[in-house]
Amino acid sequence: MENMEIHDLMRPVEEFPRISSQLTFFQALEALEKAQDEFLSGKAAQRILLVYDKDDKIVGKLSPMDLVQGLEPNYDRIESLKDQSRYRLNEETLERMKEQFQLWHTPFSELCKKADGVKIENFIKMPSPDHMVNSEDKMAKAFHLFVVGRHDSLFVREEDRIVGLILFSDVYRQLAQAMKQCPMEG
């Protein structure tokens, strides 16, 4: 495993369904449902939906959580939300945050109406450095990011372009296989 590089387990972007960042919130909802249905029926190998920009570059991935966050625009006002999500916040802190930023104060039906014309590019989160590896990196870097960030996948880049994803499920499968080959003391 020590000599294995990221590209050895990477899945290229071509294996994933894709959606334009120019499409709307409700088109994103439909695309996510379709990706899930095709995955569950065996028609598609992946359910992760990659987002590409006007230049056809992959800029992120779309998840149901992105849609929920995109529905409530006040989350954009919380600068450090991404950093805070890694740490368990107590109930009191979470409630203060909800009140301070007036999260979910607007009736759901109004949020839905407002979301109608919102483009994916307005709520998709770009991958952060802790969610990114280079294709030539050793697997140790991916192990570290998976454990520390609790990610289910990492973006793989070559130079400034995202070229694939490495999935924790693939890494774990390889790791489990290697562990079974380890000599046991006993």
Helix-strand layout with pairing:
Elements: H1 6-9, E1 11-12, E2 18-20, H2 25-40, E3 49-52, E4 58-62, H3 64-71, H4 81-84, H5 91-100, H6 108-115, E5 132-134, H7 139-149, E6 153-158, E7 161-167, H8 168-180
Parallel strand pairs: 2-3, 5-6
Antiparallel strand pairs: 1-7, 3-4, 6-7
Helix pairs in contact: 2-3
Notes on the protein architecture:
- This protein is α/β, with parallel strands linked by helices and 186 residues long.
- It has a single domain, classed as CBS-domain (Roll).
- The protein is 40% helix and 16% strand.
- The chain has 8 helices and 7 strands; from the N terminus they run αββαββααααβαββα.
- It has helices at 6-9, 25-40, 64-71, 81-84, 91-100, 108-115, 139-149, 168-180; strands at 11-12, 18-20, 49-52, 58-62, 132-134, 153-158, 161-167.
- Strands 1-7-6-5 form a 4-stranded mixed β-sheet.
- A hairpin with a 2-residue loop joins β6 (153-158) and β7.
- α2 (25-40) packs antiparallel against α3.
- It is globular and about 60 Å long.
- The two termini are 23 Å apart.
- Mean pLDDT is 84; it is low at 82-86.
